[in-house]
Amino acid sequence: HTFDLVIRNAHAATASDTFKCDIGIQDGRIAQLGLGIASGSKEIDAQGAWVTPGGIDGHCHLDEPIPPPLRMADNFETGTRSAACGGTTTIIPFAVQRKGQSLREAVSNYHDRAQDLACIDYGFHMIITDPSEQVLQELPGLIDEGYTSFKMYMTYEDMKLNDHQILDLLDIARTKNAMAMVHAENADCIEWLTRRLEQQERTSPRYHAHSRPMLVEREATHRAISLSELAGAPIMIVHVSGKEAMDQIRWARNQGITIYAETCPQYLFLTEQDLGCDDRYEGARCVCSPPPRDKNNQQFVWQGLSDGLFTIFSSDHAPFSYDSPEGKKPGGKQVPFRRIPNGIPGLETRLALLFSYGVLDGKLSINRFVELTSTNPAKAYGLHPRKGTIAIGADADLVIWSEDPQTIQNINLHHAVDYTPYEGIGLRAAPGLTLSRGQIVYDHGTFKGAAGQGQFLRRTAPTLQPIHSPGSENQ
Ligand code: URP
Ligand code: ZN
Ligand code: ZN
Ligand code: ZN
């Protein structure tokens, strides 16, 4: 046989094309594309189903070191298993720097957590929480070693940076050509609103959304854009939740400032009402930041996905179980919203939701779907063209889609979280088969991969084109 594996009769889609072909895979890479190619030791008939590049989740949180009693439900094994079962073949979670810690230590600690557990390939972003003089000095070396992106928080007491610190880091991002990611919410406004709500004894989960209205995201988004412009370094604004923040991004691009933007499933499928319409604690399940907005904002986010305002679509998977003393009930208790760990799971459901409600409902072309979920994350984070496309020489990371209607149910998911915020949502299609470097890691409901199979990816500089004003022409 000429190939290890041949996928016959694929309806392949990349960010730019769709084509019918057979895919010849050898040594984990795509070796040939064409109709009627030679035989493989193994053959799979795709029967005309869509075949897309494996998903790249450029924003997910796994096994981050956090103060007890809190603990993330997913480690590298359960997280990557769940990702693979949802058609994602590469993840880039975060190596978090604790205050006083060197970035080197943070990264090396995180390698230990991934070692022998990852079932799919992975890189690390850094989260920089303490940009001391030493840290500013060690950062360029880490970028050179393949950690070519880092996240900065404008909020969270133990993580937030001030504008001066952000500028120092953006200056390094500019000189080293790294991708700087920004969590844009105004910390002081949130703290002021939170105290006022607490004085009024409004502490149930739904008030989390009241403490972080769109205004606090809009202000911080505009400020992040200004800092990016001042430092001359493009940024990726992560988890953009709705219109007012999108308006800032569109404005920036019209000024000629290159700003990249990410959104996530929670801003398409959840609203503030999912945090509760009364004081019941169940809403803690959907506590995340920024919080989900309203139906109107969901429509703007869909529009931004289709018209180019958004660069990438990530899960922001942040796995805390609901009925757990390590999760949404810290120490076993229902706590005021301030103390509910932020974040919701979404690694496994990201692609099926966007495919079903975007592509199959006619809101997104299949090419745009691939661009948002795979090609652009690969380009933004220095993995393209090895990852993020179907091309000769690229890794054989592929999804064969199955257009069988089904319903999202947590019992069928492969993460270690005890709920999904998308329980009961219907899907028109889902990944049927996932291949990671030519190996089947998921087959119609069953995980087929193995812990330790995933490789660490040293990443290069971003290769996204500067954005002039896509996302603004049609407005
Ligand atoms: O609520 C969220 N999104 N938690 C995850 C951490 C972050 O800020 O992305
Ligand atoms: Zn964030
Ligand atoms: Zn996040
Ligand atoms: Zn199938």
What is the gist of this entry?
By secondary structure, this protein is of the alpha/beta class. It has twelve helices and 20 strands.
What does this structure look like?
The protein is of the alpha/beta class. The longest helix is centred in the middle third of the chain and has 18 residues, at 214-231. Strands 1, 2, 3, 4, 5, 15, 18, 19 and 20 form a nine-stranded mixed sheet that branches. Strands 6, 7, 8, 9, 10, 11, 12, 13 and 14 form a nine-stranded parallel sheet that branches. It has twelve helices and 20 strands. The termini are far apart. It is globular. The protein binds N-(aminocarbonyl)-beta-alanine and zinc ion (3 copies).
The oligomerization state is single chain
**Structural class per helix/strand content?**
alpha/beta
Shape: globular
Let me know the number of strands. 20
Helix content: 25-40%
Number of helices: 12
Largest sheet: 9 strands, mixed
Give the low-pLDDT segments: none
Q: Report how far apart the termini are.
A: 54 Å
- How much beta, percentage-wise? 15-25%
Helix-strand layout with pairing:
Blueprint: E1 3-13, E2 18-26, E3 29-34, E4 40-45, E5 50-53, E6 55-60, H1 76-85, E7 88-96, H2 103-114, E8 121-122, E9 125-127, H3 133-144, E10 149-153, H4 163-176, E11 179-183, H5 187-199, H6 207-211, H7 214-231, E12 235-237, H8 243-254, E13 259-263, H9 266-269, H10 295-307, E14 312-313, H11 350-359, H12 366-380, E15 398-402, E16 406-407, E17 426-427, E18 430-436, E19 439-443, E20 446-447
Parallel strand pairs: 1-4, 1-5, 6-7, 7-8, 7-9, 9-10, 10-11, 11-12, 12-13, 13-14
Antiparallel strand pairs: 1-2, 2-3, 5-15, 15-18, 16-17, 18-19, 19-20
Helix pairs in contact: 3-4, 4-7, 7-8
The structure holds N-(aminocarbonyl)-beta-alanine and zinc ion (3 copies).
Residues 402, 432, 444 line the site of one zinc ion (ZN).
